[in-house]
Design brief:
Shape: rod-shaped
Radius of gyration: 48 Å
Structural class: alpha+beta
Largest sheet: 6 strands, antiparallel, barrel
Distance between the termini: 60 Å
Number of strands: 25
Strand order of the largest sheet: 6-15-18-17-16-19
CATH class of the largest domain: Mainly Beta
């Protein structure tokens, strides 16, 4: 019995020693294999959108469902991994909380509306002065007040001029001389009568006598004591400069006349919009004095200089004025519609202007957004014309773009403000990103 016990104890000791040696050998082998694997670079997998999610085998991200990629350090990152660093992924809950809504970039016909204020002015091509062609006395005025309407065919005043009476007498004498010497056999005498008549007639014309008045002078055979004065155009008297009985000299102005059937509107267009203005464009004019009434005109001239105080360029609009409803110096509002053709457009809120860049967040996959540099043109209402950077059919964040950009900053991705002063720069490849809170996060998937 003693011998059997001793043998059993010896066998147990040998088995324990063998087991312990095997365990130690397996541990050393595992440590050696782990050391060799570590020296070669352990293959780990992470989510490009959530770099704090680390796994030792392929799979999907428990937060966004994105396919995991190999986690590499430093310069070992490939182009695709570097590109994904700028992306931001949002769960449906996050999109609702951030009020993120997407809209599709579409090619639509755009019409730019240039709105400006203006002042009604006289049409300078339809203004005239009534002046005294001869010196004399205003014996009679047919227009006694400013604002009176005058017609081209009716006299506005009558003037007595001794010089004019003398010129009429000379013309009548020349007519008699021509009739007396026209049958003379001497050619120089017969032709000289015609020359005297032509010279006297020309003098009357230079004194402002009309052809029909000369014809009446020939018919009457005696001079007119008072000469009627006519206006060169029909319109409204805007200035009255003489009184009845007043003596005037040759060239003195008597009245200022303006034809208000057509007026000018000089509108002031800001310097960032006047490049859209072209001659002949249709302009709609509205005035507070005539609610619901729209006047239409055309751009007739763009002034070649800019007002340094208001930073505006004056644009002249010529338009008819039926009933003389538009009064000079009246304030009006003008709208010019400029067709831009068909172009890709997105809402104004979809484009972030950082000062040096214009960025739109494009939805590359459901819930995944990537920053895209764009170049925009004219703003049409709440839409922006996109010149480059976006294609028709691409979806962009129409609201919540700034929140997406903030999310990108928090994760260290840079986002739309990367490189912009006052915002974080894009991280270096392989640099760790700070963790963030997410709904539905599985703590077992993280290796802190």
């Amino acid at each position: 019995m003693k011998l059997s016990a001793k043998v059993a104890i010896a066998v147990a000791v040998l088995l324990a020693a063998a087991g312990g040696g095997y365990y130690l050998w397996q541990g050393r082998q595992g440590e050696t294999a782990k050391g060799e694997k570590t020296s070669k670079g352990e293959v780990l997998y992470t989510c490009p959108m959530h770099p704090f999610i680390i796994k030792d085998k392929p799979g999907t991200c428990p937060i966004c469902g994105m396919e995991l990629v190999k986690k590499v350090e430093g310069t070992q990152a490939d182009a695709k991994a570097l590109e994904m660093l700028g992306h931001v992924s949002l769960s449906p809950t996050q999109q609702v909380m951030a009020n993120v809504a997407t809209v599709e970039a579409k090619a639509i016909p755009l019409t730019k509306e240039v709105n400006a204020v203006g002042i009604v002015q006289y049409d300078q091509s339809r203004q005239a002065k009534v002046t005294a062609w001869v010196s004399g006395r205003i014996d009679r005025l047919y227009v006694n007040s400013v604002g009176a309407y005058v017609s081209r065919g009716k006299p506005v005043a009558e003037v007595y001029s001794p010089d004019l009476v003398s010129a009429q007498q000379e013309y009548l004498l020349a007519l008699r001389s021509r009739d007396r010497f026209k049958d003379s056999p001497i050619a120089s005498i017969s032709q000289g009568g015609e020359g005297l008549v032509a010279s006297a007639r020309q003098r009357l014309l230079l004194m402002g006598v009309k052809e029909r008045q000369i014809a009446g002078l020939e018919k009457a055979g005696q001079p007119n004591i008072r000469l009627p004065i006519y206006t060169p155009l029909s319109g409204v008297v805007i200035e009255k400069l003489v009184l009845q009985g007043q003596y005037v000299n040759t060239g003195d102005p008597l009245f200022n006349i303006a034809d208000l059937s057509t007026v000018w509107v000089e509108v002031e267009v800001y310097e960032n919009e006047f490049s859209f203005i072209k001659l002949g464009q249709r302009v709609e004019i509205v005035s507070q004095s005539w609610p619901g009434k729209t006047f239409s005109g055309q751009v007739s001239f763009v002034y070649p200089f800019l007002d340094p105080k208001t930073r505006t360029v004056k644009v002249r609009v010529q338009l008819p004025n039926p009933g003389m409803k538009l009064k000079p110096d009246m304030f009006v509002n003008a709208m010019i519609k400029v067709p831009l053709g068909s172009a890709v457009a997105v809402p104004v809120a979809a484009v972030m202007d950082t000062g040096t860049r214009q960025v739109a967040w494009v939805e590359t996959e459901p819930g995944m957004f990537a920053p895209r540099d764009v170049k925009v043109g004219a703003r049409v209402g709440d839409m922006l014309q996109v010149l480059s950077g976006l294609k028709e059919g691409e979806k962009v964040a129409a609201s919540g773009a700034y929140l997406i950009d903030s999310e990108s900053q928090l994760t260290g991705n840079g986002g739309g403000h990367a490189g912009h002063e006052g915002h974080g720069a894009a991280p270096q490849p392989g640099a760790p990103a700070p963790p963030k809170k997410n709904d539905g996060m599985n703590m077992d998937d993280m290796k802190m």
